[in-house]
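User: Can you write out an input/output pair for a complex, sequences first and structure second?

Assistant: Here is one pair. Inputs:
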Amino acid sequence: MRAFTYERAGDPAGAAKAVAATKGAKFIAGGTNLLDLMKLEIEAPTHLVDVQDLGLDKIEDTDEGGLRIGTLVSNTTLSAHPRVRQDYAVLTRAIQAGASGQLRNKATTGGNLLQRTRCPYFYDPNMPCNKRRPGSGCAAINGASRQLGVIGTSDKCIATYPGDMAVAMRLLDAVVETVKPGGDTRAIRIADFHRLWGDTPHIETVLEPGEMITAVTLPRPLGGKHVYHKVRDRRSYAFALVSVAAVIQPDGTGRVAFGGMAPRPWRVEAADALLPRGAKAVIERAFADARPTPDNAFKIPLAERTLAGVIAEARS
Amino acid sequence: MSDRENFSVSRREVMAGGAATAAATAIPPAQARAQQPPDTVPTMPVAFQVNGKQVKLDVDTRTTLLDTLREHLKLTGTKKGCDHGQCGACTVMVNGVRVNSCLSLAVMHEGDEVTTIEGLGQPDNLHPMQAAFVKHDGYQCGYCTPGQICSAVSVLEEIGKGIPSHVTEDLTGPMRATRDEMRERMSGNICRCGAYSNISDAMSEVAEG
């Protein structure tokens, strides 16, 4: 690990300012992904700004009937919150499908959104990777790509966004609240938060330098049946090959989002409208522009079968 | 004094001594580093409690909680397996919650309360989970065991607090410490010897208490 200096920030705008003021500085919250990458020197921050004292660890009802989740709320706390279990069960299901108990106790809401891909070539400093070293090439495109993306990818990078929580948040139309170094705040729809990176796969979100997530808000509950199915190489503690998050109403309408398929949680609203016609129609629309590799083409029929299982569960 | 007493050094002490020797051989590079301008190797003071005892240290900011426990405080019960949060051998409790001590910096724990396997119970005062692991042979080589036990104790607490898991069918109903629940919740602790079924037996016994 490269040497770095460390400070604990006292307020959100101050934290943003501290990161913006030092070249190579980063925020640290739970640290479960950042420290993993720092040990491999894939991340090498010169300065860490610890945000644990900022008091952003509360879950509150919003005036609109939704929920505001402070960025420092741990995955465990969020998944166990009574209102989340009652009204946003797909979020509890998605969080509990990811990582291990130890990691969920440390991982934060904002940090989880910012986790980096688990592409094996990104994690191997001996291999070219446009995300890790821009311009060095992509070893994954003609490499072992079984785990990697089938849609929204580019000729520069076919990595996936690895998380589960954000798939449910995309389904629920969450909004990410941030503060900038100057103190300005903004609200970013989660649909716009993770970039489809094109030629710049090292830029994964729309956050500006020093801009810090302060909360994630959920709109009013949707009702309906909440289901999250994750297909992976082992039954627990593994990243998704394919995951499907859905909220399905008694009349068969609803919405659906996919994980493990793309650089960001994948949802196509026009495909949601096809839910009453069944899994095949939804998948054909949602993945109409897919460009899978021979190694990962199986993900599309797997997504269809997984969605068929989700629809069946919602009807049962 | 008999010969036997002269050699009454436990395997554990030999292992701990070995770690100390390894640390001693690492001194030259550490000295070399100390001769560099001080701003190239930032260190910081940090104070927290470990097993009820206050500790105060000056650490390289890069030092993980795991390395602090093992190398600075000589609490070698907590083990380093993968050092990347994948195996669970380093599991300890911080403020009553289990975490991977390898994925946390010591400087982030100012004022925290850390409990390691040494704090959970001692040879003459075993924690019920430690006793159950012994009774049910919940290990073979034993390397992952401290992490397994810290995790197992936490798992039962998490079920008691009503925290759901991936296999919980009814998210709003009461949580029960079933075999399926315990197995799912222990998935962050890998046992290369494959003692899982005995670990599950040990946990079930404590859960049924």
